[in-house]
Amino acid sequence: MAALMSVRRFDGALSVMRIAGYRNYTVGSTISLMGTWIQRVAQGWLVWQITESPAWLGLIAFSTLGALMVMSPIAGVAADRIDRIKLSRIAQAMMMAQSIALAVLVWGGWADRWIVLALAIYLGIGHAFHTSARLALVPNLVPAELMAPAIAINSVIYQLATFIGPAVAGIIIVRFGVAWAFTLNILTFAIFLAMLTRVRLLRHESPAPRIGLGPAIVEGFRYAVVHPGIRPLLAALLVGTFTVRAVTDLLPGFSAQVFARGAEGLAWLTSMVGLGAMLGGLWMAQRPHVAGLTQVVVACMGGVAAAMLLFVATDFFPFALVALVASGFAMLVNSTGTQTLVQSAVDGRMRGRVLSVFNIVLQGSPAIGSLAIGAVSEWLGLRWPVAIGAVLCGAAWLWILPRRAAIAAVMECDAVPARS
């Protein structure tokens, strides 16, 4: 009986996976994301081998995510105006070209820090269009009543990739070398492009009115900024991503300098973040609706700050891994819960642009955080800057804590128009 009840808790998730278009997209995206994380870990280790500099690790992370920040508003307008499947194909082809170029350069021994930096910027441009299309596409692939578990599954597969991808990357780097990791990523892009040909939309949303690019971008930002629920959630998420989420890009430095574990230790550290996040995604997938989700999102922000303080306070590698599992769980539930609330409340005609703002916060602000923490770490070491960031995240949690009820009143319902 208990087993049956456990299965029934995932009825929504199982129903979502029976939808052919969503299932094909999910399978292809999972494979591609694993390849992306394999390349991400390999790229971080390559940069560390070339530079042995935390500042350069932060700069490479900033270059990709900084480009994403700049291009996301444009990508959001594109996601509101053109076919999101077509946009996904274009973005995947762009990123595949980057992987081919990087693999060739590494195999030939021509890669240096500046070439890797240039390719990382190009990758960020392609990633901006892919992510805007991916986030806005989910409501087009499933019925409205299944949107919450669909978004959660989308996060689960992302975190599954962060768990498996780094582990595979560690094995490949140690046994075969960095070049093979980049080569494998090319294959994963090709598979996803093939799967995208089998994806069909289940629901269509009215396209946004055709206005100039600049006014369209401003309209999207204005909607997010004046919305009474979206604004405080994104503000809190901004602080959290700038401070603690940026730490994942500095894990090569922690593995080498703090724990003296090398590439294998890096794979363990990164995989534990992914494991915690995957568990958080599975927990989110069994939630059938958004009721009570604001409370969960706020609680997990405090959990992220506490877990990161525990991580930087220890020299014991197994305890550090446990702390990263906890931080990964809390980060995933916080970010996925925020996205689910935004998707539920946003006007469909504004979806792509508002989610591009969400994407800037979720993926772009860690770029600045990585750059800042990496630079300060050159003088203070890795631990103190991360500890300060965790304290700032805790302060943001205290700020949003008394605002939970007001946020829930406007977010845990149907779309709420922005107020002038």
Question: Would you spell out the secondary-structure blueprint of this structure?
Answer:
Blueprint: H1 2-8, H2 11-17, H3 20-51, H4 54-81, H5 84-108, H6 113-141, H7 147-175, H8 178-196, H9 213-226, H10 230-243, H11 251-258, H12 262-285, H13 293-312, H14 317-345, H15 351-380, H16 383-400, H17 404-411
Helix pairs in contact: 2-7, 3-4, 3-6, 3-7, 3-8, 4-6, 4-9, 4-15, 5-6, 5-8, 6-15, 7-8, 7-12, 7-14, 9-15, 10-14, 10-15, 10-16, 11-12, 12-14, 13-14, 13-16, 13-17, 14-15, 15-16
Describe the structure.
The protein has 420 residues and is mainly alpha-helical. The chain has one domain (19-202, 213-411): MFS general substrate transporter like domains (Growth Hormone, Chain: A). Helices cover 81% and strands 0% of the residues. The longest helix has 32 residues, at 20-51. The protein starts with a helix and ends in a 9-residue tail after the last helix.
Query: How would the global form be characterised?
Result: globular
Count of domains? 1
Overall pLDDT confidence: 83
What distance separates the N and C termini? Answer: 52 Å
Uncertain stretches of 5 or more adjacent residues: 1-6, 414-420
In CATH, the topology is named Growth Hormone, Chain: A
> By helix and strand content, what is the structural category?
mainly alpha
